[in-house]
User: Fold this.
Amino acid sequence: MPSMKDPMAESQKRARFQALCQALRPDLLRFAFWLARDRAVAEDVVQETLLRAWKAQDALLDAAAAKPWFLTIVRREYARSFERKRFVTVDVDELIAAEEPLLAASEDEELMELRAALFRLPDDYREPLVLQVLMGYSTAEIAAELGLSNAAVLTRLFRARKQLRALCGEDTRLDPEE
Amino acid sequence: MMDCAAYRRAILAEPHADRAELRAHRAACHDCTQYTLRLRRFESRLERALCVDTERMQARAAAPSEAAPPPRAAQPEATAAPRRGPPEGVTPAPRAVLPLPAEPRRSKPARRYRVWSAAAAALLAVGIAGVVWLAVPGPSLAADVVGHMAGEPQAWTRTDIPVPPSQLNQVLRASHVRLTGDAGLLSYAHSCVFRGHTVPHLVVQTETGPVTVMVLADEPSNSAVQFKEQGYQGVIVPVPGHGSLAVLERGGATGMDAVQRVAARVRSALTWTP
Assistant:
């Protein structure tokens, strides 16, 4: 006999999931954007992420863990985008020029400069930095997400800020050597 | 005890870390305290920089610019070329075609209409944002003020002991300001470097708690703006011809009423000197 689903329960489940997606979507988009440095790719990645999450939502047992769960899917989907599009090299100046309207959005020149500097950071440094600053991940959480040791994460975060400060023309004379 | 290089390496990796060994080093090292202060201001800007406007992102994705450069895939000989690859430690998930959950497919005219609507809405939003942005001090001023607060936790002590008059006068004189009225019980006065200028950082004790005032003669503002950031709330009040005052409290216990009262009282008590 085919199983009968309770329409009310299904509707509630759907509403809960939609509310969750709506709440998390801005952060997912930001994370994808800083991974990809391309808003169109970020949009695609987030769209795919939401679809995949919808299919796998029963795997999400704890609503409090939703954000890291979604962010992990974003990373996987971004990785998967390399199967579809063969990006080999990128010209950072072109990336910045393409995204300039967004990078310069409604704020001051310093932020624009900082965003352009973020574009120039190597992926290995930018990603842990975004997870820490934007997503509020601890060092241990970043290490778990990236499959690195705590010490490696701390080194990358140190290098990320050191490079970023130099790129932004900050006074780095007191910055320590490695 | 940890040396300066080790401290700075640690704080560059985790600017908000507050472990006992870091606190102990800071307490004993003025240079590292100042270094931390500057780094946290930078961190505050970094947070704002990363927080891109996703509504704008979506609007632009819906209506791509005609002036946009051609796809990068067509330019394999790119210069300055960090390799782009999948994120570390991630194995791409197997490809699968997933149906949209009950999202009806739209017809082309409807989609085109949506694109134009999104573009028009984005343009309108940019216009309004531009007008608002021109009319009020930038939100980054509030962020920088809040960033500055993180470096001076001692300023938030609740006390009824006033700052010595000689210290208060020295701080005010350094910024060409003097008190000609009653600003209330001032418990803290310090000359701070803020955005490259020396500014008075004062704390006024109120019945509900301490309120911080920064006298920002080099930060003009056209109208009063309230802000709420990282556990602080306050207001930036214009002082025509003399920049602005940033007045704020921490944690919400003191309340915006007290902040507004202190702002009005300090503003009328201060006189700028040549």
Observations:
- Residues 8 and 14 of chain B are 10 Å apart (CA to CA).
- Helices of chain B lie at 4-13, 20-28, 30-50, 54-62, 108-135, 139-149, 165-174, 256-269.
- Chain B touches chain A through 67 residues (CB under 8 Å).
